[in-house]
Amino acid sequence: MINAATTRDQAKVMGRFDITKRLVAKLQHDEAVIGGIGHTNWDLWASGRRPQNFYMLGSMGLAVPIAMGVALAQPDRKVFALEGDGSILMQLGSLATVAHQKVRNLAIVIMDNGIYQITGGQPTATGLGTDVVAIARGAGLAQAAWATDEAHFEALMDQALAEPGPFLVGVRTDEQKPFGQTERDPPQLRDRFMRGLGVKT
Amino acid sequence: MTTWWEIVRDVLKRNEVKLVTYVPDNVLNPLIKAIHADSYFNAFVTAREEEALGIVAGAWMGGMRGIVLMQTSGFATLPNAIASLALPYQIPVLMMVSERGTLGEFNVGQATVARTMRPVLDAMGMEHHTMTRLDEADFILDRTIRQAVTTQQPACLILSPLLTGGKAP
Fold it and tell me: What is the pTM of this model?
């Protein structure tokens, strides 16, 4: 299933907030989630605060590396990176690093609407034809797929939760406005996250 | 006689700095080899210095200490990630930079980018020290790590050619 040979063009365009809520609803074991900057992050915030969520306020492109670091430090916890297409295009090399380090407890979800929505809707490379899932496979992430619709996304998340990764799932998303905005208090965001991971008590 | 890279390896271990991410460099090579040869460490190469910093930042939040190794030109790619992740979130990312661009540099590009390093560190208000002598190496590294961890601030160690021999034509 995870290796279904669907291309970006064949994947259904879905609601980013709806997809985010579907993922969060599946997290029953204090799984960590790293929200990359932009609307991806804001919808994660709006989907309900969890102490195991980390909300970025800059460092565009680093959701995957941050999630990888958490995953290496806590190998028994499943870690999700939620990243946008514009962001992942900045750190494509990080997919190769995740692949060669075979980070078993890491799943990457790319919310791909093909535009830099937050800066006015200019097209990203994915909107001009680049297929991030194909790049991920080329980087060595064998378990990479497009979610063809909502039910398929849920099945892929079930697989990512149950089986050893790393995984990468591409989701084509719409241009809906985000449903909230994160707090802008970085030390508090970090402190809450570390307590959520049991690093601080 | 103990070498600089053996001192660095031992001080990292003593301070439980287990994760080492790096973009390789000729001067750092003996340290990278020594770290890979020691099963205490989890060490691996990244494609980019920013990525290496992000991994160490995430690992800190997950309870594991780490350090990023790079050369001078690599540091020049980091100010945004330091300014928008390590500093505001108060994450003690440790960095070790092998200093190119001075004391016998042969590449003018390295020489120019090297002159941006300390002003950038100062502009961000970051703790940084240049390691020049074998007999001071343990003290400087050990105390810098301890200060970074207890104050929750990133810190940068610069390995001078005076310590390492550098890279000369």
Answer: 0.98
